[in-house]
Design goal:
Mean pLDDT: 86
Strand order of the largest sheet: 2-1-3-4
Bound molecules: zinc ion
Oligomer: single chain
Helix content: 40-55%
CATH topology of the largest domain: Rossmann fold
CATH class of the largest domain: Alpha Beta
CATH architecture of the largest domain: 3-Layer(aba) Sandwich
Structural class: alpha/beta
Shape: globular
Largest sheet: 4 strands, parallel
Number of helices: 11
Order of helices and strands: HHEHEHEHEHHEHEHEHEH
Strand content: 5-15%
């Protein structure tokens, strides 16, 4: 007969009750009084709670979910559409951080707020996904020489992110190590496929038309991978000040390179860029997703969708229209 470890009130001992959560619940219901669950059940319910992985933004959460499968809970601190460079963590973010088993950050100076956040989380291990990547440096403007943090905009560099996640997840949950390697390999082949696809699309644009104009200088990795030039209103969103000088410089570039279409990102206002479009004679070609995914109903609910969405906009905006006869 199994020993039952539950403590109970009202009825004396329920010796010999089978160790079964439903039996326990049923007795509690019938007796109409408090019966604490058997300790073994309490322990079991703790065991089934999956470790919590917190990422700093939604794009990293998507990559992490692809590696974690259903073995880990993955959540993003910043929500869809949030500005992530200068984000201010809320008290509820800090409470969440306290419960996390692993914090995942991008690094390269992207998350200015992350030190405060990880300090609040105490001893929670942290993994920096850009570690080991040779960053591209920001050219010109006040951020000149600093690393450009948007390395996930290169599918090849994202493969580095995936490898870092496999390492961190395997340390957190050694029993899942094989599964993480398997999930990662599946996702890496999708990234490889994406790289081929993006190259094919962007190389279809005539070479002299390959000038990508955005609000933030967030496309350096993409531009570098696929042979594009880039121009932008400001180097990083942390300091997204629109000055007349920056606007004038961009307008001159657009005119000199005869750029037909320019764009802006979902996490910042497109007002200034629309003015640049008007002043330079370019079209405003739509909204890019870079620092945040869209929600599930939007055009960029995953990183793969995000890349495809942006590149389609670029192709449609920069390819000369065929003449209609
Ligand atoms: Zn950014």
């Amino acid at each position: 007969m199994e020993r039952v470890l539950s403590k109970h009130f009202c009825f004396g001992r329920f010796g010999g009750v089978k160790k079964n959560f439903f039996v326990w619940a049923f007795i509690a219901l019938l007796s109409g009084c408090y019966v604490s669950p058997p300790l073994s059940e309490v322990n079991d319910s703790r065991k089934v709670e999956k470790p919590l992985v917190l990422t700093t933004f939604t794009v990293l959460a998507d990559i992490a979910r692809n590696v974690a499968g259903d073995r880990l809970r993955v959540d993003s601190i910043t929500k869809f559409g949030a500005e992530i460079h200068g984000y201010q963590p809320t008290p509820s973010d800090l409470i969440k951080a306290d419960k996390a088993d692993l914090i995942v950050e991008n690094g390269l100076g992207l998350e200015l707020w992350v030190k405060k956040f990880t300090a609040a989380a105490g001893n929670v291990p942290t993994v920096v996904l850009s570690d080991g990547i040779k960053p591209l440096l920001i050219e010109g403007d006040v951020y000149a020489g600093k690393p450009n943090p948007h390395a996930w905009m290169s599918p090849k560099k994202t493969i580095n992110y995936v490898d870092k996640l496999v390492e961190a997840f395997s340390e957190l949950d050694p029993n899942g190590a094989e599964i993480y390697v398997k999930n990662a390999s599946k996702y890496k082949s999708k990234l490889q496929q994406l790289d081929d696809e993006l190259r094919l699309i962007l190389e279809s644009i005539p070479a002299n038309q390959r000038v990508l104009v955005s609000c933030e200088g967030a496309f350096s990795y993409l531009a570098n991978d696929y042979g594009m030039d880039e121009a932008y209103l400001w180097p990083v969103n942390a300091e997204s000040q629109v000055t007349p000088r920056r606007m004038e410089k961009l307008i001159n570039t657009i005119k000199a390179r005869k750029v037909p279409t320019i764009f802006c990102e979902s996490t910042v206002s497109s007002k200034a860029q629309r003015e640049v479009a008007k002043a330079s004679g370019a079209n405003f070609g739509g909204t890019f997703y870079v620092d945040s995914l869209s929600d599930l109903h939007g055009p960029a609910p995953t990183l793969l969708d995000l890349q495809r969405h942006n590149v389609r906009l670029i192709r449609d905006g920069l390819t000369p229209k065929r003449k209609e006869y």
